[in-house]
Request: fold
Amino acid sequence: MRCEVVAVGTELLLGQIVDTNSAWIGEQLALAGIDCHRHTAVGDNRERMLSVIRDALDRADVIIVTGGLGPTQDDITRDVVAEVMGVPMERDPAIVAEISSRFAGRDREMPATNLRQADIPIGARAIAEMPGTAPGLVCPIGDRILYAVPGVPWEMKVMLEGTVLPDLRRRAGAEEVIISRVLRTWGRSESSLAELLEEEIHRLDVEGGPTLAFLASGMEGLKIRITAKGTNQETVMNILKEEEALVRKIVGPIVFGVDEQSMESVILDELAGQGLTLGVAESLTGGMIGSRLTEVPGSSKTFLGSIVAYHPDIKHKILGLPEGPVVSREAALSMADGACRVLGADVSVAVTGVAGPEPLEDEIPGTVWMATKVDGISQASRVIFPFNRSQTRQFTVISVLDQLRHRLLDRRRT
Amino acid sequence: MRCEVVAVGTELLLGQIVDTNSAWIGEQLALAGIDCHRHTAVGDNRERMLSVIRDALDRADVIIVTGGLGPTQDDITRDVVAEVMGVPMERDPAIVAEISSRFAGRDREMPATNLRQADIPIGARAIAEMPGTAPGLVCPIGDRILYAVPGVPWEMKVMLEGTVLPDLRRRAGAEEVIISRVLRTWGRSESSLAELLEEEIHRLDVEGGPTLAFLASGMEGLKIRITAKGTNQETVMNILKEEEALVRKIVGPIVFGVDEQSMESVILDELAGQGLTLGVAESLTGGMIGSRLTEVPGSSKTFLGSIVAYHPDIKHKILGLPEGPVVSREAALSMADGACRVLGADVSVAVTGVAGPEPLEDEIPGTVWMATKVDGISQASRVIFPFNRSQTRQFTVISVLDQLRHRLLDRRRT
Reply:
């Protein structure tokens, strides 16, 4: 079974947004063992959309179209698909009711244009999941099938996972299973990881087996992706398990998580496991450490709060820093102490530094002092990141949390 | 002159990397007034690359191909282009020398495969800029032209800016200039904005003129993009200016910024202009308000800090909330008071609510109380967002900052 992905939207061609949907869909298709030979982006233009979709139907069994399902005049995917199918559209009363109820729930009046979204080409059916107000469509076209889903990434994902991918797997029958596992690491550069794993990659090349790839992902860590193929899920999971053990043996404790486990979720789990609460004191990150921790549902069990002491006065007044420079070992240690004391936390992390672009207290941008406090003992270290403001802040977040992770692991062992 | 962009690389189809090149190139072409009707991504496969490139040459005058110029066996763009041109390749001694000198300079031995990069289809010429070891190519094909540039973004950009775009502008002669301006809004849904602007959009359709489009961008606001064409920059800027004034008149003060101005930068500028400092007290956002504000360089002039009071104890102990529910009008008002008092700030924003997925104090997920304090007067309001955890947090950030914005605008007027 061959698939193509078509992304609709003039804003994609104009580069006003980057098409992340096609990459995500490509990844899901690969995991489902379905070949995808082409991604195409086309503008909100009837003639050109017709031509792109018809060409794709000539080559592929399945087309996934994203975008152009919204309520406004430039959203014409429904109309174009109906034209390709050679059928008129019909307003679906169930969808009218559904859209109306969404607006009623939000206590907002529904603009009449939203009802255009309830128009469905005859012969197509609406996708059951409808996270926004745009219904997705399943459209049989001869022996081909076209799925139309919204361009809004989270709406698209809900429909892909709920309907499109299960449907495709059913149609594809028993194909090859391809599964990846991601080991997330922190503390080594991509090239040094590649060097560490050079022999293993060579062995896999020669003997055949899973493949290893690296992906630098900022605050999400440096990822090692292991991808394996096989005739069924069990076989593939066993290959992945063995290879994961080999890789972990080679790279050691820099692996902090697997797949979707972020550094934050790992820290929160470890704290919960040890029955500890966490407090934060942050300066250059401005709240990002707390923000990232609280992205994780259930973080309120262990994370108490953060003192974002951006102005030096707040550092002195609330966290009790002694007079003196605020980008220093003493400042970081004192902030970690202050976070535990003021927030009543068992352990803490603290950061202070120069995000840039301007220097501060004669320290160059990228200079960051990080501290952790565990069992009453505070430790601090300095890093000078060779990055821009945004990267410096992000790398500070994951670096200080990784320092806490190592201390918590040591604590558990002893 | 019509252009298409072709991105080559199996990793794009598999979603291992997101194709940011096509978006960037699309933006540059739009700025140069060159129409781009299609982006296509294809894998490192001879047959499929031939088909994609030949199809594109049927439709467009210019093709820009990115990727597949590296030294390894799967980099076959050179070979495929030679086949499309119907010519053999010839090793270019100048490029051999250039590549060798790069390796000599880096004190590294050159793998023999790197010399493949010096093979040029006869009739093509190498692009002068060569930031990496992969030369780019300018390939005349009949009356069409194909540019092949590397997939590494910074190498691609150097070649586009140095050779491809100047070359295209020269070929295009005096073509149109296309410029967009984005008005960022908050406070109305996409469909209600579309309804407000329906008449204006209709007028522009009938009379000709700039186009309007909408783009929901989460925490970045709901964007109205005005795009205008003309023979030179000055004309286009005047059209944009006039249309911006018309749109602002219709939609009113929901426009908070233009182009790259975020809600945070607007708030910080307004505070600086009025000589006010800002303090924050946040619960469900966990630090995101502070984090977003401090993304803006220079935010330390007005933003003092944030008390991230995630655990109820911190709300009572540090911010001085009275006993009682923490998701309530009283709690939000008391947090806004606390932020001003504890941080010594002139004005403050505060949020408390239920990010989900679990309810809290019998309030459903999405329930958020927001408060602002300006000139000693605190105001609070409640919203129930019909979104998931992450969206609820993001929409809370922009919503409470927008409330502060309106109060600051009122303050400036009186």
Residues 389-413 of chain B form the longest helix (25 residues). The two ends of chain B are 54 Å apart (CA to CA). Chain B has three domains: 2-172, 177-258, 263-413. The domain at 2-172 of chain B is CATH 3.40.980.10 (Molybdenum Cofactor Biosythetic Enzyme; Chain A).
